[in-house]
C-alpha cells in the first residue's frame, strides 16, 4: 500500500537520475580541449543524450506495464552511476558522448514512467500533484549537479571534482529507497512496442517544450565555451543551475493557472529572457547571464514544463504513459538538434552571430506555437460550449 513517504522516495530517485545528466557540464570546454575539438563537436557529444532518449520513448512505451515501474527507475539509477564512473575513469569528449547516451536511456525510462508511477503512489491518484512532484524533483536534479560541480571547481581545476563522488553515494541511497516502493503490473499489459501518443490538442504543448528546452540545451552545451572567452568558464555550472532549477520558484504560480495560460505566459517570457542572457554572454556580463537564465527558467521549467505536462496528462485519459513519452520526445528533440546547428554556427560564424540566429528562430517559433496553442484551445472549448447549450 502506498504511504505518504513513498512519493518523496520516488522524487529523491528522480532527482538523482537527473542530477547526473548535467554533472559534467562545467567541464565541457575542458573535455573539448583535451580531445582537440570545438563547439560543434561538443554539441554533438552533448546530444548523444538524445540518441539514448529517442529509441526508448519511441519503441518501449509499454515496457513499464509489463515489468512494472520500479525496475525502470532502478535501471535508470544504475545507468546514471555508470555514466558518472565513465567520466571519472576516462575524461574526454568521446567518453562524454557515450556517458550521455547512457544518461539519455536512463532519463527516458524515468521520464516515460515517472508521472504515472508518482500518480499511483499518491492517494486518489492525483495527476496534477503527481506532475508537480515530478517536475520539481527532475528540475532540481538537472540543475543541481552542474552547480555543485562548478562549486567544487571554484577551489581549483580538476577532472574528477567531488560532485562526481557525491552523486555515486547519493544514487546508492536512492536505489535502496526505490527498492522499498510498492509496484504493480497490469493484469492485461499492452503491447511492449507502443508509439508515443499525442491526444487531440496536445501538439502545441509539445512544440512549446521543444522551444523551451532548445534554449536550455544551448545554455548547457555552448555557453561554457562562450563564457570562457571572458574568463567566466567556472560560472557555467551556476548558469545551468539557474536555467533549470530556478524554474521551481515559479511552479507554484504555474500550478494555480490553467495549463493553456501557463504555457502561453512561458512563450512570452522565453524570447525576452533569451535576449538578455545572449547579450550578457556575448559581452561577458555575468549578472545579465544569470538574470537571463533565471527568467528563462521560469518558462522552461516553470510555466511551459508544468503547464504542458499537466495539459498532456489531462488530455491523455488512460494513455498517460504514452502521452508523457510523446511530450518528452519533442522536448529532447529541442534539447539536441537546435544545439548542434547552433554549435556549428559558432565554429563557422562566431558566437555573436550564432546567438543572434538562434534568437530570431526562437522568437519566430514562439509566435507560431502561441498561435497554434490559441487555435487548439479554442477548438477544444467549442464542443464543450455546444454541449452546455
Automatic annotation (TrEMBL):
Database matches in InterPro entries: MFS, MFS_dom, MFS_trans_sf, Sugar_transporter_CS
SUPFAM superfamilies for this protein: MFS general substrate transporter
An example molecular function term from Gene Ontology annotations: transmembrane transporter activity
Coiled-coil region(s): none
Annotated membrane topology: Multi-pass membrane protein
Domain of life assignment: Bacteria
Gene3D superfamilies linked: MFS general substrate transporter like domains (1.20.1250.20)
Domain Major facilitator superfamily (MFS) profile: 6-389
Predominant location: membrane
Transmembrane segments: 34-60, 72-92, 98-118, 130-152, 164-182, 203-226, 232-250, 262-279, 285-306, 327-346, 352-374
Alphabetical UniProt keywords: Membrane, Transmembrane, Transmembrane helix
A GO CC annotation given for this chain: plasma membrane
Keyword set includes Transmembrane: yes
Location relative to the cell: Membrane
PANTHER family: MFS TRANSPORTER (PTHR23521:SF3), TRANSPORTER MFS SUPERFAMILY (PTHR23521)
Protein name: MFS transporter
The organism of origin for this protein: Pseudomonas donghuensis
Amino acid at each position: 500500500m502506498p504511504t505518504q513517504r513513498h512519493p518523496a522516495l520516488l522524487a529523491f530517485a528522480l532527482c538523482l537520475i537527473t542530477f547526473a545528466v548535467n554533472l559534467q557540464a562545467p567541464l565541457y570546454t575542458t573535455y573539448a580541449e583535451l580531445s582537440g575539438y570545438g563547439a560543434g563537436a561538443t554539441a554533438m557529444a552533448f546530444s548523444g543524450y538524445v540518441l539514448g532518449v529517442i529509441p526508448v520513448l519511441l519503441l518501449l512505451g509499454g515496457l513499464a506495464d509489463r515489468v512494472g515501474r520500479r525496475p525502470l527507475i532502478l535501471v535508470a539509477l544504475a545507468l546514471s552511476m555508470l555514466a558518472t564512473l565513465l567520466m571519472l575513469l576516462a575524461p574526454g569528449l568521446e567518453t562524454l558522448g557515450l556517458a550521455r547516451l547512457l544518461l539519455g536511456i536512463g532519463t527516458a525510462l524515468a521520464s516515460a514512467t515517472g508521472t504515472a508511477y508518482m500518480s499511483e503512489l499518491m492517494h486518489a491518484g492525483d495527476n496534477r500533484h503527481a506532475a508537480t512532484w515530478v517536475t520539481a524533483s527532475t528540475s532540481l536534479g538537472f540543475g543541481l549537479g552542474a552547480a555543485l560541480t562548478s562549486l567544487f571547481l571554484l577551489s581549483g581545476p580538476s577532472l574528477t571534482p567531488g560532485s562526481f563522488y557525491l552523486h555515486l553515494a547519493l544514487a546508492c541511497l536512492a536505489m535502496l529507497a526505490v527498492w522499498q516502493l510498492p509496484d504493480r503490473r497490469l493484469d492485461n499489459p499492452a503491447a511492449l512496442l507502443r508509439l508515443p501518443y499525442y491526444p487531440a490538442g496536445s501538439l502545441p504543448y509539445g512544440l512549446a517544450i521543444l522551444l523551451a528546452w532548445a534554449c536550455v540545451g544551448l545554455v548547457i552545451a555552448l555557453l561554457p565555451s562562450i563564457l570562457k572567452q571572458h574568463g567566466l568558464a567556472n560560472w557555467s555550472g551556476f548558469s545551468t543551475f539557474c536555467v533549470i532549477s530556478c524554474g521551481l520558484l515559479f511552479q507554484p504560480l504555474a500550478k494555480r493557472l490553467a495549463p493553456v495560460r501557463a504555457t502561453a505566459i512561458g512563450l512570452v517570457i522565453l524570447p525576452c529572457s533569451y535576449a538578455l542572457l545572449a547579450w550578457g554572454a556575448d559581452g561577458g556580463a555575468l549578472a545579465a547571464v544569470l538574470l537571463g537564465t533565471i527568467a528563462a527558467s521560469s518558462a522552461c521549467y516553470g510555466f511551459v514544463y508544468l503547464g504542458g505536462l499537466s495539459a498532456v496528462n489531462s488530455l491523455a485519459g488512460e494513455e498517460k504513459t504514452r502521452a508523457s513519452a510523446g511530450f518528452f520526445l519533442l522536448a529532447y528533440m529541442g534539447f539536441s538538434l537546435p544545439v548542434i546547428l547552433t554549435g556549428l554556427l559558432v565554429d563557422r560564424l562566431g558566437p555573436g552571430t550564432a546567438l543572434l540566429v538562434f534568437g530570431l528562430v526562437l522568437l519566430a517559433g514562439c509566435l507560431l506555437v502561441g498561435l497554434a496553442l490559441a487555435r487548439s484551445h479554442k477548438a477544444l472549448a467549442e464542443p464543450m460550449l455546444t454541449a452546455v447549450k
